[in-house]
Every structure is written in structure tokens, then in C-alpha cells.
Write a structure and sequence with these properties.
With 244 residues, the protein is α/β, with parallel strands linked by helices. Helices cover 46% and strands 11% of the residues. It is built from 9 helices and 5 strands. It has a 5-stranded mixed beta sheet, covered by helices on one side. Strand 1 and strand 2 form a beta hairpin. It comes from Hibiscus trionum (Flower of an hour).
């Protein structure tokens, strides 16, 4: 049985290698800057489009165009995120059992502000870039704990939620390994019903709602206690993402 599985894995790998070559040939003719992109990045876009070279290429070229326009300096500065940073809602520390970086989002601290959805989108890109910089060689994915404790209707920001979802699905595919949603209040159900139809099937399969009584045990299945934040029964303090 194992030999059969290994053969299938090898065949899948060869198919991916071939398609990566085809995709690279095409995208480099369309956008020469593609030559600077590694094969792992191309593979993520291919996997997001079920190895369809044409669709993956279109998705990737759209990403390159967006990145140049949205992040013209190559990075997002904290000076562009004053309102977001002040809310102290995103933290980055530790990793799961496979070495994937672990982020914690305190959603009850998110409120709309004068910076609007554009600043929020810049913050999401800033978060991703910070996370990617912490990844060990060969790792491509990360885990997030989305904590909804004290979340209320004042925190509900549909434009921000959909913007974040679009970034994850359209420009950073195959990066999120799992999103644990914890301490979800009953009133979040109404917000979830609005957002859910916009979540593609691949992303839906990565979202796990955790019961309060099973919180620590569920997280410990993926994360060692030494890497788990103190607030969830672990040993690490929460570190604001801008301080990492």
C-alpha cells in the first residue's frame, strides 16, 4: 500500500514539475519579472487552480500586476498603518509542530477607522510579509488563531472581512494551513452567514471552529505547549506583530 502511495506521490510531483515548466515559459513571455519568482510560488498558484496552467498563469500575472501597484516600494511601512497598529490586534509568535509560523488575531479589537479599507488591506499584506519572513526553508504555510472573545456588532466590518478574504484567496493562495476560530459568540453566526458564501471550498476546509471546552486540547494537537500562547494554556507571551 505504501509503495503505491509513494508511486502516486512521485507521479504527482512529476506532473507538477512539468506544469511548472510550462507555466514559467508562458508567464515569463508575458511579464519578464517572473524570472525572479521561484518554483514554489508558481506551484502554489498551480495548486490553487487544480494544476490548470492557463488559469494559474492568469491568476499569477494578476498577482504581479497588483503587487507592483499596491506595494510600489516593495514593502509596507508601519507609517502607513497607524490606525491598524494602534488597535493592537495582531500577534506573531511560536510555530506549530511542523514549524509553520503561528499568528493570533484578536478580532474583538478591530474597529472601522479613518484609514478605511485601504489601510486595512495594507495591514493584511504587512502581516503576510512578516509571517513569510519567519518561515523556515521549504515551509510555505502558516496557522492563525482567530479569537472572537468580546466580539460584537461594533466589530463587524464586512468590507474589511471580504477584502482580507480576497487577498488570501486571490493573491496569497495555498499559504493558509489552518484558521482556528475560538471563543465565537452566538451573535457571530449572523456575520458568518454573510461572509460564508464568499469563501471558496479550499479555504472553507481550512477553517475550524473550536469549542471552548476543547480549546486547549484541540490546539495542542497541532501546537506544542511550549509554542502555544499563554492565553490558551501555553507558555509564550503574545508579541505584537510590529515588534517581531
Amino acid at each position: 500500500m505504501k509503495n503505491s502511495e509513494n508511486m502516486n506521490c512521485e507521479q504527482d510531483t512529476e506532473i507538477e514539475k512539468t506544469k511548472i515548466c510550462l507555466m514559467r515559459t508562458f508567464v515569463e513571455t508575458q511579464d519578464p519579472s517572473s524570472k525572479e519568482i521561484d518554483d514554489l510560488t508558481l506551484r502554489r498558484f498551480l495548486r490553487a487552480r487544480d494544476l490548470d496552467v492557463e488559469k494559474a498563469s492568469g491568476m499569477f500575472l494578476k498577482y504581479l500586476k497588483w503587487r507592483r501597484s499596491f506595494v510600489p516600494n516593495g514593502f509596507i511601512s508601519t507609517s502607513e498603518l497607524k490606525n491598524e497598529i494602534q488597535q493592537k490586534k495582531m500577534f506573531l509568535q511560536g510555530s506549530d509542530k511542523k514549524g509553520r509560523p503561528l499568528g493570533v488575531l484578536l478580532a474583538g479589537r478591530h474597529f472601522q477607522h479613518k484609514g478605511g479599507v485601504d489601510e486595512f488591506k495594507r495591514f493584511i499584506v504587512y502581516i503576510f510579509d512578516k509571517i513569510f519572513a519567519r518561515m523556515p526553508p521549504g515551509e510555505e504555510k502558516f496557522i492563525v488563531i482567530g479569537d472572537l472573545e468580546v466580539w460584537g456588532y461594533a466589530n463587524f466590518d464586512i468590507r474589511a472581512y471580504l477584502a482580507a478574504l480576497s487577498l488570501v484567496q486571490d493573491y496569497f493562495p495555498e499559504r493558509l494551513e489552518k484558521l482556528f476560530i475560538v471563543h465565537a459568540p452566538y451573535i457571530f453566526t449572523a456575520a458568518w452567514k454573510i461572509v460564508y458564501p464568499f469563501i471558496d471550498m479550499k479555504t472553507r476546509n481550512k477553517i475550524v471552529f473550536v469549542e471552548n471546552k476543547k480549546l486547549k486540547s484541540t490546539l495542542l494537537e497541532e501546537i506544542e505547549e511550549s509554542q502555544l500562547p499563554e492565553t490558551y494554556g501555553g507558555q509564550l507571551p503574545l508579541i505584537p506583530i510590529q515588534d517581531t
